[in-house]
Amino acid sequence: MSKVKDLVSKVENQELVNLQELVKAINQVQLQIGWLEAQKPDLLHQLVGIKQKLNEFQEELEKKYGNVSIDIQSGEIKENESPEKN
Questions:
Q1: Does residue 80 belong to any structural domain of this protein?
Q2: 86 vs 84: CA distance, rounded Å
Q3: Residue 17 class from Cβ within 10 Å (0-12 exposed, 13-18 middle, 19+ buried)?
Q4: SS3 state at 70
């Protein structure tokens, strides 16, 4: 080692602060990722339930209006084109 490196036993205060902040930031992000992973199964379960409700509601709408498309922005109903027979 060089003589300068032998004389220095600690990093400068600002370097230590920067190092600590970066490590703290990494730890915080890892904690958030862990929290999200813990929430993921619950959210996936909720998504499945919502999709089931959507399918049931679509069946109700089809019974009421027939085979149509509904614009989810305006509510406008359009008849689906039937496939042409050859």
A1: no
A2: 6
A3: exposed
A4: strand
Domain that includes residue 57, residue range: 12-68
Confidence (pLDDT) at 1: 53
41/84 Cα distance (integer angstroms): 44
Residue 3 maps to a domain: no
* 34-82 tens-digit pLDDT: 999 999 999 999 999 999 999 999 999 999 999 999 999 999 999 988 7
User: Residues 6 or more apart from 80 whose CB is under 8 A from it?
Assistant: 67, 68, 69
3-state secondary structure 13-35: HHHHHHHHHHHHHHHHHHHHHHH
Whether 34 maps to a domain, the answer reads yes
Number of independent structural domains in the chain = 1
Residue 29 lies in a domain: yes
